[in-house]
Amino acid sequence: MDSKLQGKLQGEILVSAAGDTVIDADNSIPCEDCASVLTPAGRAAVAVIAAKGKAALSAIDSAFVAANGHPLGDQVTGRITFGHWHDEQGHREEVIVCRTSGATTEVQCHGGPTAVARITQQLADAGCQIIPWQQWLEQESADRIAAEAQIALANSLTLKTSAVLLQQDGGTLKSEIDFIASEIAAKNISEALQRIANLQARIPFGLHLTKPWKVVIAGRPNVGKSSLINALLGYQRAIVFDQPGTTRDVVTATTALDGWPVELIDVAGLRTTQEPLEAAGVELARKSIATADLVLWVVEAGSDIEKSVAKESQELLGPALASPPNNLVPLIVANKIDQLDGTTQATKPELPIVATSALTGEGIPVLIEQIVKRLIPTLPKADEPIPFTLRQVGLLDQLTEAIQADKLEAAKETCNELTVGCAVRTSS
Ligand SMILES: Nc1nc2c(ncn2[C@@H]2O[C@H](COP(=O)(O)OP(=O)(O)OP(=O)(O)O)[C@@H](O)[C@H]2O)c(=O)[nH]1
Ligand SMILES: [Mg+2]
């Protein structure tokens, strides 16, 4: 597995673009009396609070007065009931309550934070543990992968990433793991290992379904990096100025390229400088490059691009760029092609270079195409199973190790752990 993923597995909790803690916390610890706000925080029209357990249900029963006059216990399961929520200070609020199953009840109230806080506080005072919505989803699920897909969907950034996650929510990944488990049971070990390897090859793609790919736009000062980020975004995000050393801070913007979420990162032009502020910018630029999924190395279009690219990549990025791991081989962009005359165009370099003009927009569609090709070299087919959480990644590694060590019972248990949700575990 690549070292970046390994680092993440050792304790980092994935954070979505919205800054929300998402899919890799261990949400499987069951709680008896608990409640959770299932709708996002904010001034939404309606909030949904789900609760389960004896303490929760008796707290709802004493605060909720149904318009049909029946107590909560007599309300029909699966049918919504209009009524009022009362608190100890005598406040009254219109709510809809639904017993969604024998054990769980949903309260739908006004979506403002005060209404939500009042109801959850009453539930907490009655002894209910208030848990995050991700934990609620996992606890209530019979299929752990479907719960993870639903959590990931809330953090999905584009229609394309959502479509892939919906596919996994619908059972594609679970069916594959179940099939692998049956192959292990039948002792078809090489087939099982091959299928696990196929899943593992799709991990880098899967983990980016909830986290944009990072693309750093790097190069010498004044080559048009900031102009390119603006051209790719379609609006003026970064300051452009005809003076080398304009960009100092790291400027980021999230967009979709061909429907895939990408964080574009514009940085200071790389050069040796004695000016402390610019040197700080160059240092930040190097740090961004080190964590990128792809680096665009921008040069000014001209007759001796090959020479300048080779020289620059050695001087400015050092051996890391000259012989990097695959994903950091930079994509060379020759910008300002509008300045080339007929002679220099005729001697365009042999290197695989994308020629652009940030000024006129020429070459930008090709650049987008090439970026996407580099980020997603093989696009999985619509119905392919794709692992998309660090928990799944870790368990797939564990599964391979168990099979290779001929510990087939442990391997079957790992398959079970991958797929079976908390609701089944706690009931069995
Ligand atoms: N003719 C032409 N000029 C361009 C093009 N792209 C950028 N420029 C000009 O080049 C100058 C520098 O552009 P920037 O985008 O600020 O360059 P940069 O690489 O971000 O520069 P630093 O932030 O200083 O590293 C500006 O005057 C731009 O208008 C282009 O494609 N064609
Ligand atoms: Mg700039």
TrEMBL record:
Question: What GO annotations for molecular function exist for this entry?
Answer: GTP binding; hydrolase activity
PROSITE patterns with a match to the protein in the record: G_TRME (PS51709)
Gene Ontology CC, one term: cytosol
EC numbers: 3.6.-.-
Q: Name one Pfam family in it.
A: MMR_HSR1
Keywords on record: Hydrolase
GO biological process entries: tRNA methylation; tRNA wobble uridine modification
- Annotated TrmE-type G domain ranges read 212-376
CDD domains reported in the protein's UniProt record: trmE
Under Gene3D superfamilies, the record lists:
P-loop containing nucleotide triphosphate hydrolases, Probable tRNA modification gtpase trme, domain 1
Q: Which PANTHER family match?
A: TRNA MODIFICATION GTPASE GTPBP3, TRNA MODIFICATION GTPASE GTPBP3, MITOCHONDRIAL
Name assigned to this protein: tRNA modification GTPase MnmE
This protein's species is Adhaeretor mobilis
Gene it is expressed from: mnmE_2
